[in-house]
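Thread: "does anyone have the structure for this chain?"

Original post by V.I.:
We have the sequence but no experimental structure in hand. Need at least a predicted one for the grant figures.
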Amino acid sequence: MSFVVAIDGPAGSGKGTITKLVGEKMNLINIDTGAMYRCVTLECINHNIKSNEIEKISSILENIDIQLKKENGKEEVFLNEKDVTKDIRSVEVNLNVAEFAAIKCVRDKMTPIQREMGKTSNIIMEGRDIGTTVFPNANVKIYLDCSIEERARRRYKQNIEKGIKQTYEEVLKNIEARHKSETERELSPLVKADDAIYVDTTNLSIDEVVEKIVSIIKEKMSN
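Reply from O.Q.:
Generated one for you, tokens below.
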């Protein structure tokens, strides 16, 4: 029987970093579902397909191949056998991913793939609807939250480190737009699962958040 940890929360709340570190500490396979939706978004952008062109998107999904790999300690993302680890973090993908992730045929394609990943392995999976839709019976559910301003500051800092040129104001505007889109969409909106443990990361260091979640997981595993 596999052990599943579901981490949900808005963009910039620290899910990616925290999930990776907790996964390493607890020997759990880290699955970034956001990267999967980013791959779909990138593939559509590469083919000049808009988010309202559902038939074309469905056609893309029929043959899309997404692989999440760990090479030499680094997590890499492959789209149709091409390394797109950096490409899926581009400004254009950032601006469009929320729209594509809200499309029914996209979620219908990704959700079963994500569930399959948790059938045979002990995993920690992060996203927007992991504890509510993908794994409603997850062993541990965490909802990571953070103030909008702090989320924008973190994303702005990440962009600088990755060489992505965007002003703080532009990042803040994008974060606000994504939050509105993700929380108000009809299909699998971002909400806290009733049985999820709420963790506000605004004033916590990365280490403090990691330790808090690790202790929650250890307690659950020992029961």
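V.I.: this helps a lot. The longest strand covers residues 66-71.
O.Q.: and The chain has one domain: 4-217.
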